[in-house]
Design a protein that fits this description.
The chain has helices spanning 19-33, 45-49, 91-101, 113-124, 149-170, 185-193, 208-220, 242-254, 274-293, 312-315, 327-334, and strands spanning 6-11, 37-41, 53-55, 106-111, 129-133, 173-178, 198-200, 226-231, 258-262, 298-303, 306-311. By secondary structure, the chain is of the alpha/beta class. The structure holds 6-O-phosphono-beta-D-fructofuranose. 6-O-phosphono-beta-D-fructofuranose (F6P) binds at residues 14, 76, 112, 135-137, 179-181, 232, 268.
């Protein structure tokens, strides 16, 4: 294969801190090391479908390392999702047509599970694709960590730290709901880092009675307040947030004053943490190397701090959930931290 000369970049799915660091890593490496031309598609796959793109000269990549969000914008467009109301789904053909008309040699797709699924389909249809795993949820299969996770962890942990003082002052139960989609990584790590007394994740089935018993026991042990960290993906009625549901149950069954905080989108905002800047840059630079070497149909990943690539076909349609038997969970239980399943040692 001749040396790739022109590479496209897109950012898709939920935004997160670090996206611009990744774009910068790809672009600077491609331009400076490999002499490539780089373009960026606006609003994820929508930009590719509509041929809506900007040239990314090296000058455009300066000053974005620390910038939150994505200079390219993003969308949750899923080109292969077919709905009868749209009639024939021409989007995949449009993407392939635009890819070739623009003279692209490769496309780097930065995103989460859904993006990697689309990237795999485009790769199967003959486009030269490299994926980069991104999401605050940290639930992309095949890599130890996605960029965006550390920044969300930092934000959630700081919020939990702040809840301790108000819970203590009012002798209240404070529940904070964090993001994570169907995985509990943010809740687990922020719960441990923030000193949560009860951590609720989708991967461990909780029991309201066990949660209430833990709160009552803490009161009896002169700990008249509790901090509960709940992942948004835990089981709860659709009509109310997980935090509201748990708070309501605690108030009814224990009579203890309970307040909830749904942390929401602040977990996705602002400047990336130093670790996310480094990880996103490493992913981006390595993705440019994969393009230069013709290593396509792959997602860049990190295992034991070493950069590797894995086939997109292995990543698609998978979610990396928390293993409930993780040593850090077993140790937390030994320290008396509850996961709502009644399995901590009785005092
Ligand atoms: O995937 C990242 C994420 O923030 C999830 O944690 C959350 O459930 C979802 O996106 C929210 O989606 P949207 O940005 O479309 O509201």
């Amino acid at each position: 294969m001749t040396k790739p000369k022109k590479v496209g970049i897109l950012t898709a799915g939920g935004d997160c801190p670090g996206l611009n660091a990744a774009i910068r890593g790809i672009g600077k490496t491609a331009i400076i090391e490999y002499g490539m031309e780089v373009i960026g598609f606006n609003a994820g796959f929508t930009g590719l479908i509509e041929k809506d793109y900007i040239p990314l000269k090296e000058s455009a990549l300066s000053g974005i390392l620390t910038l939150g969000g994505t200079i390219l914008g993003t969308s949750r467009e899923k080109p292969y999702r077919y709905s009868k109301k749209d009639g024939n789904n021409e989007k995949p053909e449009q993407i392939k047509r635009n890819y070739h008309e623009l003279g692209l040699d490769a496309l780097v797709c930065i995103g989460g599970n859904g993006t990697m699924d689309t990237a795999n389909k485009l790769s199967q249809e003959g486009l030269n694709i490299v994926g980069i795993p991104k999401t605050i949820d940290n639930d992309v299969w095949g890599t130890d960590v996605t960029f965006g996770f550390d920044s969300a962890l930092l934000i959630a942990t700081e919020a939990i730290d702040r809840l301790h003082t108000t819970a203590n002052s009012h002798h209240r139960v404070m529940i904070i709901e964090v993001m994570g989609h169907h995985a509990g990584w943010i809740a687990l790590y922020a719960g441990l880092a923030g000193g949560g007394d009860i951590i609720l994740i989708p991967e461990i089935k909780y029991d309201i009675r066990s949660i209430c018993q833990c709160i009552e026991d803490r009161y009896k042990n002169n700990k008249p307040y509790s901090i509960i960290v709940a992942a948004e993906g835990i089981n709860h009625p659709e009509e109310e947030s997980a935090a509201r549901y748990i708070a309501g149950a605690i108030q009814i069954y224990t009579g203890k004053e309970t307040r909830e905080t749904v942390l929401g989108y602040v977990q996705r905002g602002g400047s990336p943490s130093p670790m996310d800047r480094i990880l996103a840059t490493r992913y981006g630079s390595y993705a440019a190397q994969c393009v230069a070497e013709g290593n396509f149909g792959k997602m860049v990943a990190i295992k034991n701090n070493e950069l590797i690539t894995i086939p997109l076909s292995e990543v698609k349609n998978k979610t990396r959930n928390v293993d409930k038997n993780l040593p850090m969970i077993l140790k937390a239980k030994e320290m008396g931290i509850s996961f709502g399943d009644g399995s901590i040692k009785k005092k």
